[in-house]
Amino acid sequence: MRMFQLFLVFLLTGNCFAQEKLTEAETEEGVFWKIQNKESKQISYMFGTIHMIDKDKYVFPKVVSKRLDKSEIVILELNDLDNQSNAMELMMLPKGRMTDLLNKSQRDSLYAYTEENFGLDSALFEKTMGKFKPFFFMQLPYASVMMESESYDMNIYKQCKKSNIPILGLETIEEQIGFFDNLSDNLKSDLIMQIVRDTSDIAQSWEETQNLYLDQKISDLLNQSSGSINMLQFMEETLTADRNTKWISTLTKEMKNKSVFVAVGAAHLPGEKGLIQLLRQNGYDVSRVEIKLK
To answer: How far apart are CA 245 and CA 260, in angstroms?
Structure first.
């Protein structure tokens, strides 16, 4: 379960390195938003999360918790966070090995990277990790800096269970992992090599990402960029815009006559194709609610 939570973090941080530069008009800072249906006057709220964060940085403001408890239904990216028993199975390749995607030079670079950073020589890597899918490998650098972390999603889920608030999930775990399963072999190898070639300080990068979130500077997160053009296009279109477009029909349907609390990755909120703008295009008034996260 913990490794799947790290996967959720990648869906956020991956998006952070995915979108085109936002113009000033498209910038939507803030992670907590009030949504009002102009016709029914029904009020809902949307909270952008970072999925997981260091325990000493975790803040869940009382005003957010209060709105959560008063909602008629809560919408999360996934609904049954207690029952992801098949998550590890879904992270395994049905056939072949991860290194089958790489040429000899790329394999040698991968082996050198894992031995230097994780103490795994080529034989040990193949034995312990060779059957995992590429996106699982992408989570390893973060695992080392997220030993003591707190999950926004899980805490919101637990609060809903405690208060008997119905939960609706926007996606299944199979759908989320399927985004990466459907990549071409070339893009899958790009995923692996992007990590191998990354010379940045992961701990520092993660610290900066968390601080940008706590400062609610979501556009600053989105204005970062790295990776191949094809990978950036996948991140921007498949992981963000396409999912937002799919989600909006569910959100507007539920918000029509209910008080809804929505909690999704903060990267889904801003921008021309973000949930804030899509809700406005569907006739909703969306306004920022001032909260403090640090």
So the answer is: 18
